[in-house]
Amino acid sequence: MTVAFVLHRADGTPLSTVFRRESFGENDPFGRHREIAWEGPDLMAAGRIGFVGELDVASFPHIETIVIVEGELTLEAPGAPPLVLGPQAGAVIGCGTTVRLKAASPVLFMFCAAACGDPTKRGLFALRVDADFKPSASLPADVLLGPAPQCRSDNVFTDDGADYCAGTWDSTPYHRIVRPHRVNEFMQLLAGSVRFAAPDGSVLSLGAGDALFVPRGASIGWESSDRVAKFYVVQNVQVSTEQH
């Protein structure tokens, strides 16, 4: 199994990740623009979208988290002020939401989408860099290769039916063994840097502005030497448990 899929490098370094242009479901509003890097058996996909123009969607057909890396995207939903997203800003579009999406010039954003059943969580949910952080669980001692970190999270969106949770997370430095990842996880680093170790001893280094997707079951380690903050999406995890 591929350990991780790099979706974006802020410094423009070429990616080894292979993207395929494909819709996520039959009624995908971004069907002509979507580039999928990973799609799994849990009805989740991750990748990137380049878009310009306007889309009016009467009922968004799935859950989608987007994080802008270039340009500006405006999201408008009835009864709510417009949500204007620039680089390092993001939002979750709930399944069933009526939304207009507008980009006056080309915009590039990362996505993590999941199929949904009943549209019980409609609306637009902004991801916040200046998050309302609350203490969250640290890691068990048997997986740590050093002191336990202090972790915080701000879960802004959860959908129990899709086992989907999105928000902002940060942590003090820590070093963790290589082990199978417990969830499907998308992450967009906002601050700090991380070295992700693979079972073969190779190391993938990512920094602020970079985006990554790690499938559930992929064996991966974590080492950080400064504070790390990120937007995240996880699937098949209880929101009160640790994310890594």
From TrEMBL:
**Species:** Burkholderia theae
What is the superkingdom listed in this entry's lineage?
Bacteria
- Residue span(s) of domain (S)-ureidoglycine aminohydrolase cupin: 166-232
The protein's name in its UniProt record: Cupin domain-containing protein
